[in-house]
Write a structure and sequence with these properties.
By secondary structure, this protein is an alpha/beta fold. It is built from 20 helices and 12 strands. Helices cover 63% and strands 11% of the residues. The strands form 3 sheets. It has a 6-stranded mixed β-sheet with strand order 6-9-10-3-11-12, with helices on both faces. Strands 2-1-4-5 form a 4-stranded antiparallel β-sheet, with helices on one face. It has a two-stranded antiparallel sheet with strand order 7-8. The two termini are 63 Å apart.
Length: 589
């Protein structure tokens, strides 16, 4: 636990203030809820006072006049009835406000996740991100639903009870006031000790989610390589750490929450009864006053007990909020664009002395320079880790680069709006991703500018239309998560159709045929040639047979371009490309 980050009172206050700013759009609803809460508190204070009047002015002196007693009874019942209704309405109001706040927080978190740069996802497990957007925001909801309303109610009750006690007996009210510092001391130490415990709990819960998400997404590999026991042991270790943190929390709550407050309550009752007992020797004590003070102290400690019990929820909510705000404040955003009115018209690409590093330490691209003329195809080849995908990542603006520049039609890609780049650059990845929905929605991707004819034309263009039309529901056939019911070749063809439907000016193929069998590959080569016509194309390929007609082939090694030329020129050079070609064709020199 000592290795956990600290969570100071100042940091907690800052987070609480930031959370409260989410109430600004709901000021009217908050005002109504607080007004109802104040009315219920007033009802709680008046109720015992009416009973005091009944005891002192009727029971103690034997005055059982029907009319005033009936008036007191009706008033008391009416106040209690109204209190029940007001409590119900204010509870609904607080719930409504809380749900709207959490709704906005989740929208903010979800929106921020989609604006984060790829570096963030490289370094953060998906399960941890999911935990912040779901579990942590759910914990914050409890803060607004049960904690803040309880805190406010307790505050009004304490103030109201003290005012009533001072009106009845100032000396005794001052005497009861002594217990407040003791309660504040308990609250202070509980917050100080529990913050670290809750921080550990949330972190371990996040790690549990991350490990579970990793196991589910890689289940085929887990079972194929018999990794079940390893995953079980790793999950069990994290689960054990979470259990220990939960036990630390339980021990802390068992010590500093209700038991200590109950002890202070019993001491206060004993002192109060002792005072009345001593006073009774010298003067008469009204039964109603004794009843009111004992009732007020009881009701005084009841909200304090509720506050102490909800301090656990309060601490969890603040820790959860700190994790959500850490996500919202993360500065590794998508590369910023200058949002000018520049448009891509020809698709002329130029890399000028681009050097790039993912971690700021090791350069994965070193002084990369090349040009791709409009309508040309440039292929990138090289061994794994040579920098091929990094070139694609920079061209697509997934990562920011600091050295050199990338131009399209003579203008830096940093000067194009993100919308213009995404519209004019079409990307097909090696591992195509299909969303849950239908085949039609996966091709259209909810682009309302595309008609049904455009979708079908795109499918026909890449020769996947015949397969789709043979399905029971055709283009409305349901697609499961990640398209698991389709073959890799079918998923790739649908991804091709998705890209071609937008009619991009520049085509980026990241080993787009790697997941397609040889027969399917031959069938779509004609489609690929049609796709490339009139479009600037950059293609990464492991199968050299698919890029032999490229106008220029760049051979990369350790982040540098070591060879360039067309297929025949590179074979004549007898360099790395020549060796790769011989290896793939099974030729031994």
């Amino acid at each position: 636990m000592n290795n956990q980050p600290t969570f100071s009172n100042k940091a907690q206050t800052t987070i609480l203030i930031r959370l409260l700013t989410y109430l600004k759009p709901h000021k009217k609803a908050v005002f109504v809820a607080l007004a109802l809460l104040i009315l219920t508190v007033i009802g709680d204070i008046i109720g015992p006072f009416l009973i005091k009047i009944f005891l002192d002015e009727h029971v103690a002196i034997g005055n059982f006049d029907t009319k005033p007693i009936l008036t007191l009874a009706v008033t008391y019942i009416f106040i209690q009835f109204i209190n029940v209704i007001l409590s119900y309405i204010q509870l609904i109001k607080f719930q409504e406000i809380a749900l709207k706040v959490i709704q906005q927080l989740r929208i903010d978190a979800f929106t921020k996740i989609h604006r984060l740069g790829m570096r963030y996802f490289d370094n953060t497990p998906a399960g941890s991100i999911v935990s912040r957007a779901t579990n942590d925001t759910e914990a914050i909801k409890d803060l607004f639903v049960s904690v803040l309303s309880s805190f406010v109610q307790a505050g009004f009750l304490i103030i109201g009870m003290y005012i009533a006690m001072f009106l009845l007996n100032p000396l005794l009210a001052m005497f009861v006031l002594i217990v407040l510092p003791l309660i504040f001391i308990v609250i202070y130490y509980y917050r100080k000790l529990s913050s670290v415990v809750y921080l550990t709990m949330r972190e371990k819960l996040s790690e549990l989610n991350a490990k579970l998400a990793e196991g589910l997404s890689g289940m085929v590999i887990v079972q194929a390589f018999r990794q079940e026991q390893r995953f079980h042991d790793e999950f069990n270790e994290i689960n054990q750490q979470h259990y220990r943190a939960m036990m630390d929390n339980t021990k802390l709550n068992s010590t500093l929450l209700r038991p200590v407050i109950d002890l202070i309550y019993f001491v206060a009752i004993i002192l109060l009864l002792t005072y009345f007992g001593i006073t009774s020797f010298s003067t008469s004590i009204e039964v109603g006053v004794i009843y009111v003070f004992i009732t007020y102290i009881n009701r005084f400690f009841e909200p304090i007990n509720q506050v102490m019990e909800r301090l656990a929820i309060f601490q969890q909510a603040l820790v959860a909020a700190s994790r959500v705000f850490t996500l919202l404040d993360h500065e590794e955003l998508e590369p910023r664009q200058q949002e000018t009115n520049a448009h891509i018209s020809n698709g002329f690409i130029e890399f000028k002395q681009v050097t790039f590093s993912y971690d700021g330490k090791v350069d994965v691209l070193k002084d990369i320079s090349f040009t791709v003329k409009p309508g040309e195809t440039v292929a990138l080849v090289g061994h794994t880790g040579s920098g091929k995908s990094s070139i694609i990542n920079l061209l697509m603006r997934f990562y920011e680069f600091e050295q050199g520049d990338i131009l399209i039609d003579g203008t830096s890609i940093k000067s194009y709006s993100k919308n213009e780049l995404r519209k004019k650059l079409g990307l097909v990845l090696q591992d195509p991703f299909l969303f849950y929905g239908t085949i039609e929605s996966n091709i259209r991707l909810h682009d309302q500018s595309l008609t049904d004819e455009d979708v079908r034309a795109a499918a026909k263009f890449v020769q996947v239309n015949q397969y789709i039309e043979q399905l029971p529901n055709g283009y409305q056939q349901n697609v499961t998560e990640r398209g698991s019911t389709l073959s890799s070749g079918q998923r790739q063809l649908i991804a091709f159709a998705r890209t071609i439907a937008t009619n991009p000016k520049i085509l980026v193929l990241d080993e787009a045929t790697a997941s397609i069998d040889t027969e399917t590959e031959v069938a779509i080569q004609g489609s690929l040639e049609k796709m490339r016509k009139g479009r600037t194309t950059i293609a990464i390929a492991h199968r050299l047979s698919t890029i032999q007609d490229a106008e220029q082939i760049l051979v990369l090694h350790q982040g540098k371009i070591i060879e360039r030329g067309n297929h025949q020129q590179l074979l004549v050079q007898k360099g790395l490309y020549h060796k790769m070609y011989l290896l793939q064709n099974g030729i031994v020199e």
